[in-house]
Design brief:
Oligomer: heterodimer
CATH topology of the largest domain in chain A: Rossmann fold
Number of helices of chain B: 4
Order of helices and strands of chain B: EHEHEHEHEEEEEEEE
Strand order of the largest sheet of chain B: 3-2-1-4-5
Number of helices of chain A: 7
Largest sheet of chain A: 7 strands, antiparallel
Bound molecules: FE2/S2 (inorganic) cluster
Distance between the termini of chain B: 18 Å
CATH superfamily of the largest domain in chain A: Nucleotide-binding domain of ferredoxin-NADP reductase (FNR) module
Number of strands of chain A: 17
Radius of gyration of chain B: 18 Å
Radius of gyration of chain A: 20 Å
Structural class of chain A: alpha/beta
Order of helices and strands of chain A: EEEEEHEEEHEHEHEHEEEHEHEE
Shape of chain A: globular
Number of domains of chain B: 2
CATH superfamily of the largest domain in chain B: Nucleotide-binding domain of ferredoxin-NADP reductase (FNR) module
Strand content of chain B: 25-35%
CATH class of the largest domain in chain A: Alpha Beta
Number of domains of chain A: 3
Largest interface: A-B, 21 and 19 residues
Helix content of chain B: 10-25%
Strand content of chain A: 25-35%
Shape of chain B: elongated
Largest sheet of chain B: 5 strands, parallel
Structural class of chain B: alpha/beta
Helix content of chain A: 10-25%
């Protein structure tokens, strides 16, 4: 069970096919009440009952933060994924009842910034849609640089351009267009903060380029949710609850712990927030640390694991859970 | 090299490092008194930053003036100012015109470093982005929590607030926003019962 407030029972109000790959979903409360207020960059965990398999995927909220009557998310169909996005695309229809977590923001705007420089790749646009609405309402300065594969797959490009005009810059991979990051970063006024969301490679490129140009670490923010990777099945002993469980190839360790009826903390379920950190009591083998949370030193000692994304190979793994 | 060792204190009390050449497009140094030595030491490590450096220097309240040594470094812009207050508008202008990639360095007394860090923060840089090295006097910049007046170069504890005249005990409690330590009335409960002043901050 996640920490904090109770979950939000919702009904699907609208499903919009944005393009071949992306669908947008709008949720409203079943009791017709107002949603909790969120800030741009926040995400919710959507619970799915995929024919008996419980899936819980984090998605950034992209509706206007001032719109408390509903939440909107966009889901990109991932054919090779574990099935959460396929479930959303194939089975979620208007009128369906679902459950959302409370919004959590691991990617907030820094209110001390003089200017917000947003760099998005593909579906990484979603948190920025909410953030731009928020910055504009507060009269702040921002600029969006958005890379998409092709014009057809550029979700929301037209809407954003129409609304924000020259503050929105779009690059099409298909036409060989690429953000000139060096030039862009060189000309930013003091007090600018960078926000990057998109593929792993893009985020690493933004961090490395900014660092090499003398940007302080604290002025460069990013968010990347990891989908729990699939792998080989493995056995785990849960010492505190006295249970032995098997984690299936396409199940995460966290999901297996939950399926065994054991309460485990989480927030993002994507290796980013640190909430699920669990002590390892014994490790005969190799932990595949897939998170962004533990330091390299912590990972090397194998004394902690992030069950939402990490896996194990070896003969024995005992957790303090 | 004189490296100041500070007694362990409460977390709000700032700690300082040693200036090292940063990576960036421009380099702004602000130093007072003996802080000039830290800047000279950094330049002694290499000439790399020279062409893109700007130094603002304020001679120390104790009379220490190393302007000549700094001027001899030959950076494109060297500015000597009689006080931090007099340098403030220049500092604000440099920061306002700067681009990301600017590296900010402060060296000298705590009061000077704190005010440089506050100005940088005001311009939108994270506090951690300012490199600081303490040199010279330990005199403190103290805000009276009662009248809010700030007294510079406090060496005695307790001391008399230069604004409202209360006897103040100098705490390690430090405000980044005000760039000052906090001074609280020491004889609030027993008026007149003020312990003898000790020179705690030389
Ligand atoms: S739940 Fe956020 S890191 Fe695991």
């Amino acid at each position: 069970m996640s920490v904090g407030a109770p979950k939000i029972p919702v009904v699907v109000a609208e499903v919009v096919e944005v393009n071949d790959l992306i669908k947008r979903f709008r949720f409203v409360r079943r009791d017709g009440g107002a949603m909790p207020v969120f800030s741009g960059g926040a995400h919710v965990v959507v619970e799915m009952d995929d024919h008996g398999v419980r899936r819980m995927n984090p998605y950034s909220l992209m509706s206007h933060p001032a719109d408390t009557m509903g939440y909107e998310i966009s889901v990109r169909r991932d054919e090779a994924g574990r099935g959460g996005s396929l479930y959303m695309h194939r089975h979620v229809k208007p009128g369906m009842e679902m459950v959302l977590s409370q919004p959590v923001n691991l990617f907030p705007l820094d209110a001390r910034a003089k200017k917000h420089l947003m760099i998005a790749g593909g579906i990484g646009i979603t948190p920025f849609v909410a953030q731009m609405a928020q910055v504009e309402a507060m009269g702040g300065r921002f600029e969006l640089h958005y890379s998409v594969r092709s014009p057809v797959l550029g979700a929301y490009v037209e809407h954003l351009k129409a609304h924000y005009g020259p503050r929105v810059h779009v690059y099409h991979d298909e036409h060989g267009e690429k953000i000139d990051l060096q030039t862009l970063l060189k000309s930013q006024p003091l007090g600018t903060h960078i926000y990057a969301c998109g593929p792993k490679g893009m985020i690493a490129w933004v961090h490395a380029t900014a660092k090499a140009m003398g940007w302080p670490d604290r002025a460069v923010h990013s968010e990347e949710f990891l989908a729990p990777p699939v792998g080989q099945a493995f056995e785990v002993q849960l010492a505190a609850s006295g249970k032995s469980i098997t984690v299936q190839p396409n199940q995460s360790l966290l999901e297996a712990i939950e399926a065994a009826g054991v309460e485990a903390p989480y927030l993002c379920r994507g290796g980013a927030c640190g909430q699920c950190e669990t002590n390892v009591l014994r490790c005969d083998g190799h932990i595949e640390h897939n998170d962004h949370w533990l330091t390299d030193e912590q990972k090397a000692t194998n004394t902690k694991i992030m069950p939402c994304v990490s896996r194990f190979r070896g003969t024995a793994l005992i957790l303090d859970r | 090299m004189i490296k100041t060792v500070f007694e362990p204190a409460i977390p709000s009390r700032p700690t300082y490092g040693v200036l090292t050449p940063g990576v960036g497009s421009a380099h702004l140094f602000v130093a007072d008194g003996e802080g000039a030595d830290a800047v000279c030491d950094l330049f002694a490590q290499g000439e790399g930053l020279k062409a893109s450096s700007h130094i603002i220097y304020i001679p120390g309240a104790n009379g220490c003036d190393r302007s000549a040594a700094l001027q001899a470094l030959g950076v494109p812009q060297f500015h000597r100012s009689p006080s931090f207050a007099a340098a403030q508008s220049r500092l604000a202008k440099v920061l306002a015109d700067a681009h990301m990639g600017l590296q900010v360095y402060a060296a000298g007394t705590e009061g000077l470093m704190a005010q440089v860090a506050a100005a940088a923060q005001h311009a939108g840089l994270p506090y951690e982005a300012v490199q600081m090295e303490h040199r010279g006097s330990l005199a403190r910049r103290v805000q009276c929590v009662h009248c809010k007046g700030v007294t510079e170069n406090v060496t005695l504890d307790p001391f008399v607030c230069s604004h409202c005249g209360l006897s103040l005990f100098v705490r390690d409690h430090f405000s980044r926003r005000l760039a000052a330590f906090q001074g609280v009335n020491i004889d609030a409960e027993d008026p007149g019962l003020v312990p003898a002043s000790v020179e705690r901050f030389k």
